[in-house]
């Protein structure tokens, strides 16, 4: 099984995709079409585009995705470019692989504290003779060049810079992504997404930090205090 299929299989039907008001939650893998979405789970370009087309005004796209099909991501990117309103991407967890391509298509990218953006060379599987293999290698090189151009367009840097990062499978922290120009800011609020993806298909995937623990005792004390205060006011009114 090639690496992309391994990624899809390891994360089959783990994700979620929804749209609320003018926010799209892309907490899922990216797949090529509806058939793959039905089999593996994940969001297809058709599913994403249908939600985006139903919106008006400015849109937020929140991402926590291990990536997936690059051509599916390219179709999503084009829909984002054609959208009339402003689009802001928020990376809540991972924007890895194809998900990073979607992220940098937005005019504004905000990284959550502790989030990661990963870029790497494209994967595929090929069957055939030496000519088939050479043709596949040629195609992969073109795909990698196109992906590098998308990062270069976002950052204002040369595509060659990103070809080097892609060859090494580079995981950028939030501040590193801002420094290299593929993100615009680090959010001040707490992380919203937790790590739930199996990232073993990648060579050096870091784990997202656990969200801050909720102090249940303090929460319960606060609720009890409010109940007591409300009861006291009711008694004062009755008197």
From TrEMBL:
It comes from the Bacteria. Keywords: Cytoplasm, Hydrolase, Protease, Serine protease. GO terms for molecular function: ATP-dependent peptidase activity; ATPase binding; serine-type endopeptidase activity. The keyword DNA-binding does not apply. Residues 207-239 are annotated as: Disordered. Pfam families: CLP_protease. The keyword Protease applies. GO terms for biological process: protein quality control for misfolded or incompletely synthesized proteins. Belongs to the peptidase S14 family. One of its GO terms (cellular component) is endopeptidase Clp complex. Transmembrane segments: none annotated. This is ATP-dependent Clp protease proteolytic subunit.
């Amino acid at each position: 099984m090639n690496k992309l299929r391994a990624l899809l299989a390891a994360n089959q039907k783990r994700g979620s995709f929804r749209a609320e008001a003018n926010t799209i939650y892309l907490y899922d893998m990216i797949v090529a079409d509806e058939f793959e979405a039905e089999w593996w789970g994940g969001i297809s370009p058709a599913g994403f585009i249908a939600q985006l087309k139903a919106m008006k005004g400015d849109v937020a796209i929140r991402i926590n995705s291990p990536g997936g099909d690059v051509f599916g991501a390219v179709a999503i990117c084009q829909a984002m470019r054609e959208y009339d309103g402003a689009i802001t991407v928020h990376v809540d967890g991972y924007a890895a692989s194809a998900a990073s391509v979607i992220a940098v298509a937005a005019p504004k990218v905000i990284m959550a504290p502790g989030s990661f953006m990963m870029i790497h060379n494209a994967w595929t599987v090929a069957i055939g003779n030496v000519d088939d293999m050479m043709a596949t290698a040629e195609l992969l090189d073109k795909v990698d060049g196109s992906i590098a151009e998308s990062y270069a367009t976002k950052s204002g840097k040369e595509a060659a810079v990103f070809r080097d990062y892609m060859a090494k499978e580079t995981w950028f922290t939030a501040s590193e992504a801002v420094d290299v120009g593929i993100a615009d800011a680090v959010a001040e609020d707490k992380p919203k997404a937790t790590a739930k993806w199996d990232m073993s298909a990648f060579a050096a995937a870091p784990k997202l930090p656990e969200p801050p623990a909720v102090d249940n005792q303090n929460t319960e004390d606060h609720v009890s205090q409010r109940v007591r205060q409300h009861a006291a006011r009711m008694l004062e009114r009755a008197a």
